[in-house]
């Protein structure tokens, strides 16, 4: 993919003697929405840290806009998984959005008027005007996610990484956040990589999927990846994929204790619905 915003080529990461990621390959084009799916321990956080330049690669390379990724690369926006603030901390939603501009080394000064304009533009883009003057610690989970997305986007990144933004959100809030990210992705031409345990909320908007298991990955469209032969190779044991009334379920045969644990996590987190192995 010559015009890829992000290219991950043969990425391997070893930490404390353990191979956490092994031969990861995928690319994301401008305006493309990609889901990074996997259970706890699959390597999602390590992959994000490597893309952000916080975790050295053992093998392979990461390219951003065709150039090797470094910690100085400033074309990546990041929405963290956890954001805890004291409800009484005097930091409003609009203040946090503005900090996203202050934190970047843009190479030029932004006057106060222009900064206010940019903040208002981003608040409107994520539909956060109504609670922009509320202290961030008092916002609901869905409202905080909108503010964090605006914070990550205000500096104009080409790639947006969203780390488990649906965790601890109710179904309606999760659907709203996914729809918001998909709209921003299309309207602004931003490549989005969103990590999640559960694929159901992402299916209506996802262009491609990177499915992680045991440090390895399968990438492509959901039709290309969510298949028995592909997932069986990825997990190293037989996996069935079943469509039940438009919902996809994964059923894994019982094996030894380690495989059974992996199967349970796959069913619970990676695909919509739950079914016992």
List the helices and strands and how they pair.
Layout: E1 6-15, E2 18-28, E3 33-37, H1 44-51, E4 59-64, E5 67-68, E6 76-79, H2 93-102, H3 112-125, H4 141-153, E7 159-163, H5 171-188, E8 191-196, E9 208-213, E10 216-220, H6 222-225, H7 228-235, E11 239-244, E12 247-252, H8 257-270
Parallel strand pairs: 3-8, 3-9, 6-7, 7-8
Antiparallel strand pairs: 1-2, 1-4, 4-5, 9-10, 11-12
Supply the key terms.
alpha/beta, 12 strands, Rossmann fold, six-stranded mixed sheet, four-stranded antiparallel sheet, 32% helix, 8 helices, 277 residues, 3 domains, single chain
Return the average pLDDT rounded to an integer.
83
Work out the helicity level.
25-40%
Please write the string of helix (H) and strand (E) elements: EEEHEEEHHHEHEEEHHEEH
State the end-to-end CA separation: 38 Å
> How many strands in all?
12
Task: Indicate the CATH class of the largest domain.
Answer: Alpha Beta
Report the β-strand fraction as a percent range.
Answer: 25-35%
Q: Within the largest sheet, what's the order of strands?
A: 6-7-8-3-9-10
Compute the number of structural domains: 3
Low-confidence stretches: 254-277
Shape: globular
Q: How many alpha or pi helices?
A: 8
CATH architecture of the largest domain: 3-Layer(aba) Sandwich
As a whole number of angstroms, the C-alpha radius of gyration is 19 Å
Full CATH superfamily name of the largest domain: P-loop containing nucleotide triphosphate hydrolases
* Major sheet size, sense and barrel closure: 6 strands, mixed
**What structural category characterises the helix and strand content?**
alpha/beta
State the CATH topology of the largest domain: Rossmann fold
